[in-house]
Amino acid sequence: IEHGVTGWRVPPGDADALAAALDYVLSLPQEERAALGQRARASVCSHYTVQAMQAATIEVYREVLG
Fold first, then answer.
1. In Å, what is the CA distance from 49 to each residue of 10, 15, 55?
2. Staple 10 to which of 3, 17, 31, 38, CB 3.0 to 4.6 Å?
3. Phi, psi of 7 (to 5 degrees)
């Protein structure tokens, strides 16, 4: 997540920060929420592909096998 671009990060266990982030997102105009969703989806689709997963797995094997 790119904070403020594709979503928001809040510290684990910080209910106040989570509530503030949710309040902020819910206060955004519908068009901005839709744009955020589109940016988030594009980020996921570009970074979490089968090819990327395969490359990361092969890299782990290389590290383990030396």
1. 26, 32, 10
2. 17
3. 160, -165
**pLDDT at residue 47 above 90?**
no
Confidence bin at 11 (pLDDT 50/70/90): very high
Q: Taking every pair of C-alpha atoms in the chain, what is the biggest distance, in angstroms?
A: 52
For residue 54, the one-letter residue type is Q
| C-alpha–C-alpha distance, residues 32 and 62, integer Å | 43
Rounded Cα distance, 3 and 15, in Å = 18
Contacts of 9 (CB under 8 A, 6+ apart): 1, 3
pLDDT score for 66: 82
